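User: I'm curious what two different proteins look like when written out as structure tokens. Can you demonstrate?

Assistant: Sure. I'll show them one after the other, since each token string lines up with its own sequence. Here's the first protein:
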Amino acid sequence: MDVNDRVAIHEVMEQQTISIAKAGIHTTLNARCSVLAAANPVLGRFDSKKSVQYNVNLPDTLLTRFDLVFITLDTNVNDYDISNHVLKMHADDNRNNNEDIVSSELFKRFINHAKKIRPALTDDSALLISKSYSKLREDSKGFVIPITPRVLETLIRLSTAYAKLRLSETVDECDVDEALKLFNFTKNNSIFRVKRSKNIIVKENDTFNKENIENVQTEKFTGITEARKDSILEIIWNWKDKNSHEDSCSIKKLAERNKIDIEEIRTVVDELASQDFIMVDEDNIYFLD
């Protein structure tokens, strides 16, 4: 994005105004609108070892002005889901045509009515937002997108939007819960850390065939056997099953509780993250389902 464009969009997203100084005209126009933007990686491919800011070449000051940031990656899992969806649509051509489908006209009227509602925060919902924001600030170490006071405004806006969808005059705790789920989903999908790597040194006079070299690289990189890796995987998934209400797990606490070397756990979770089973930052494991 051009520097001048960045300056202009900063004003729009922060002040909700546009300043014009052209052809002898000096004025300020209101620009109260929602901003939906999309960006491609600067190098044509998203590098999960780099931050979001690096990949899209946008600074924190601009990214934090967006309430939600979604990262859409072209993975094998997505390809499988898309192909299944397309095949299901073709295979389901003879489905019952008497399904209850909301007409576009009714849907438009619903949206127009919802936009006119001005839900008010209740004391309980305001307290829940305050506590949730404080917890996010405490846990914000290592996040790619900083948790700033703008996040507090984001939670209020999202909670209010959910209340409007319910056509409610008040923002209740259930609305805050849904807003937090959505925000946490985008937050976790915006968290990456650089994968640790170790250099493999093979002397020129050493004689290795291709298979032996691959085995040496695997052993040097992981530093653990397959049996050890399976044991750590079982510990991770057992924790997830026993704490299904939690969406993240502390790597340090998991290592201390099970008396495992923390670097061994990091090696395993890095491998899981590379296969899109989980996401990790410096301190936590984030489960995607």
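Here's a second, unrelated protein for contrast:
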Amino acid sequence: MKAFLITVSTLLVVLSGTASSAAAQETQVSFQELRRGGYAILFRHGETDRSLLPREQRKPEPSPIDLANCEIQAKLTENGRQDARAIGAAFKTLGIPVGQVLASGYCRTMETARIAFGRAEASDSLLHPAYKPVPGAPVPPGFSQRMQALRQLLATPPPAGTNTVLVSHGENFRDLIGSEGKTGEALIYKPDGQGGFSLVGRVLPKGWSVQSAP
């Protein structure tokens, strides 16, 4: 199978406290390189009933919110679930190794991760910026601290021969790249081993399943 290239004009990000410095560069990564491991792959959750509505018609979720109550949260559509299944199947077909799988504790992010990769561990670092816990629930760090922790995850090289998978929200995408991206989209980051990371690719859900001719 020929190697596919995922190309994007990227930002080289270097952690500096809670801020980051950035310089534009053009980079690319192939599926063959992903098979070797060493990347952090940040997904936006799959399509939801709420994301289908025009922005002005979207009702905010309850605040505070009980993350264990999926009925009061935005729900994955069948298309969102199908995309997650296709992503998981493509990772197996392409032989892309997955190590740690972390997700925001919201139902839509946990479900996206579990459908695609069969497992997920909830992480405060990936929570929606508007999250406020109900009384009695653990209180996470503030949003700026959570984003700093997310950047540290992106800067941390995964164990040899694996890739780290993270599932979060469009609003967290915006803090990293200036836009929310698309539902199910992945941002592929390469940790530099020195506390920094670079964005080396962006893949929409159907992009994973594209295969070359023999």
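A detail about the second structure: The longest helix spans residues 78-94.
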